[in-house]
Amino acid sequence: MSGAPLARAGHRRSEVGPVELFFDLVYVFAIVQLSHLLIEHLSWAGAAQTVVVFAAVWWGWNYTAWAMNWLDPSRTPVQLLSAVLMLAALGMAIAIPTAFGDGVWLFVGCYLFMGVLRPVFMMVAYRGRQLAENYRMLLIWTLLAGVFWIAGAALPAEWRLAMWLVALVVDYAAPLAQYRIPGVGSAPMDTWDTDAGHLAERNRLVFIIALGESVLLMGGAVVEHGHLTVGLALSVLVGFASLFVLWWNYFALAGAEAAGGDASTGALRSAYAYAHALMVLGAILVAVSIELRLAHDHLTAASVVVTIAGPVVYLVGNVLFLRSRFGRLARSRFVAMGILCLIAVAALLLGEHLPVLALSIAVLAVTATLAALTARQGRAPAPG
After folding, report:
1. 4 vs 123: CA distance, rounded Å
2. Nearest to residue 16, comparing CAs of 48, 64, 80?
3. How far is CA 197 from CA 16, 235, 268, 291, 378, in A?
4. What is the DSSP string of 162-180?
5. 299 in the same domain as 151
6. In a domain, 3, yes or no
7. What pLDDT score does 307 carry?
8. What's the domain range around 21?
9. Which long-range contacts (CB under 8 A, 24 or more apart) does 121-130 make?
10. Domain check: are 119 and 172 in the same one?
11. What are the CA-CA distances from residue 301 to residues 42, 282, 308, 309 (Å)?
């Protein structure tokens, strides 16, 4: 594949170009928008809408990161492609608060524009090569999912969530189905010549962006209070420690990843397209939970659920990542999730009788213990 005019040079295959970092700036704004969407619609319906919108935003970023795995970021056509995709991603981000309302066509239009432009560009850039055929099959699946995205936008609002869930199932199932269309063809994972180092670095950077949203929300909540009280200072301290522990746990895995692991495209697909979606979503939920706890002096059922959901969703992603890259069942993560669920039950039973800070410290104790265990075992994922 390296013979294509816009292909990455072999000795720079894993390098993350400046244009890729520039592209990610849009996702700083997108994650802010997603966090605010959940905060302002803190209900089961609001949570479902947030997850659907996040899944679309993530898939747009994910497919762009994978395309850049093969494209030389120093070439002008590639930089122009990134600029156009960045503009479309900005349109999606702007539409996030009203994706289920007046901004529906902006959101869907930008998402589908990105979904069509990427494979068409790749088909031209790699014409006559296997990768072009792979992207042809990907485009067919994208167009199939697009039918449901457009139907959801066109039908009455009460149908939107259901239609978009079907669209996401099609989008996310495509790689698992090897992009197979009976009578047309397929694109098995072993025909995608991927680079583990490049994908790992791209996903680490977007995870850092998700953590950065917590810092923004935390700082904003403190500013809104107007003055820093002792209680608020303690809450900020615990919130910051929670972020550090999440970072610590994640980059302990990154250290193990550098030492090896399954680098087949199927393993990378599970580890980055799917597992990292859950880890980034978990980080966003952690950001929202910190803001909720800083903004209220008592616990609500919603704040308890979000506080526990953040690390649990992150750890589910952890489990999938470790299983994909190392073939290990991370039992320590299941233990941690079990303890977190017990804390949630206790917090919901105690209700307002449990101080907000007590819940924060209890969750921090679990996640910090897990992070310390991972680090103590040589920055390698524990089999148990």
Report:
1. 11
2. 64
3. 10, 37, 10, 34, 21
4. HHHHHHHHHHHHHHHTTT-
5. no
6. no
7. 92
8. 10-191
9. 121/67, 121/81, 122/67, 122/70, 122/71, 125/4, 125/5, 125/6, 125/7, 125/71, 125/77, 126/1, 126/4, 126/7, 126/70, 129/1, 129/3, 129/4, 130/1, 130/191
10. yes
11. 10, 18, 11, 12
Cα dihedral 10→63→320→248 (10° resolution):
70
- Residue 32 shares a structural domain with residue 120: yes
Output the CA angle 206-365-260, nearest 5 degrees. Answer: 45
Shared domain check, 111 and 62: yes
Q: For every one of its 384 residues, what pLDDT tens digit does the chain have, with 9 covering 90 and above?
A: 456 788 887 766 778 889 999 999 999 999 999 999 999 998 999 999 999 999 999 999 999 999 999 999 999 999 999 999 999 999 999 999 999 999 999 999 999 999 999 999 999 999 999 999 999 999 999 999 999 999 999 999 899 999 999 999 999 999 999 999 999 999 999 999 888 889 989 999 999 998 888 888 788 777 777 677 787 888 888 888 998 999 988 887 766 665 567 888 999 999 999 999 999 999 999 988 888 888 776 778 888 999 999 999 999 999 999 888 888 777 889 999 999 999 999 999 987 778 888 899 999 999 999 988 877 765 444 444
Taking the C-alpha atoms of residue 69 and residue 13, their distance in angstroms, rounded to an integer, is 8
State whether 241 and 270 are in the same domain.
yes
Q: Does residue 324 share a domain with residue 290?
A: yes
Cα separation of 143 and 170, whole Å? 10
Query: Cα dist. 251→27, 246, 280, 325, 357 in Å?
Result: 21, 9, 13, 15, 26
Out of 173, 191, 209, pick the residue that ends a domain. Answer: 191
Residues 44 and 186 in one domain: yes
Please identify, among 191, 214, 249, the residue that sits at the C-terminal boundary of a domain.
191
Give the span between the Cα atoms of 218 and 266, in whole angstroms: 38
Q: How far is CA 374 from the centre of its chain?
A: 22
